[in-house]
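Late entry, pseudouridine-5'-monophosphate complex.
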Amino acid sequence: MTDLPISFTAEVRAALDQGRPVVALESTIITHGMPFPQNLEMARDVEAEIRAGGAVPATIAVIDGTIRIGLDDAALERFAQSPEGTVMKLSRADLAACVATGRTGATTVAATMICAALAGIRVFATGGIGGVHRGVEDTMDVSADLHELAQTAVTVVSAGAKAILDLPRTLELLETLGVPVIAVGQDALPAFWSRDSGLPAPLRMDDPAQIAASARMRRAMGLPGGQLVVNPIPEDAEIARAEIMPVVEQALADAAAQGIAAKDVTPFLLDRIYALTEGRSLVANTALVLNNARLAARIAAAGA
Ligand code: PSU
Ligand code: MN
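Prediction complete; structure with ligand written out below:
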């Protein structure tokens, strides 16, 4: 049996041992989702938001082959400033390979869920999840995040999925995979920068205690897998659909023209949209991550 190389910050270890609420955070959003220095500011602010909500934040990454549960400020800064191509973007397919070969990588939603579950953390806050890409009939590009939600028991708090994705197909696949998609405070599925995707969300729960109870019930029933919470971006930070859609179309056209594929698709689109909105998309992105952190702390405190 190979020992698992996993290490915890003292703060996270103590909270888990004492049964206090802990919220996991991903690191790909830092290395591949936002530019420096806004990524570092976001990473620090989101941790502060979780602490203010009475929970302990645990940003997750792999450093030199060790799964790290909780990053200190020096590690956050190292990730935030990492030159392009030096930190792997880890999902289910390459997490173990990265650890076994002593490399360094940032965890996506899928890989963060795996590490959180290994660490005994049941709630995770992020911005957006990966999904079924538009044009999937040609590319077969479906994020491993969806299949992870089907098999790993972590409640993921997101602001929905971006309009760069095929949202109806993303919802269909989540239903097929048996993943509950739970909107908070409204009936509509939120679409990341916009509060309303134009699609109804399959489930709605306005009370964090219901979301926690639903996670416990899945465990009691022996149902594997997690839950996807979709929390609308705060109104004052929203970019309306009519405004963001042409930008999304432009970014998608640019990706097609440049032949962007596989793991590079999502980071490329995020970067293009940032440039095309002159930074507005990033302001919205940061606001919704903080909003998700607040909700995740409440779900963790309610005993998910
Ligand atoms: N969507 C966002 N922001 C992000 C990501 C997705 O709005 O930062 C990141 C997350 O880490 C997510 C990953 O898990 O991209 C999905 O990548 P892919 O589409 O290659 O599976
Ligand atoms: Mn993909």
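Residues 141, 143, 265 surround manganese (II) ion (ligand 2) (CB under 6 Å). Will revisit in the morning.
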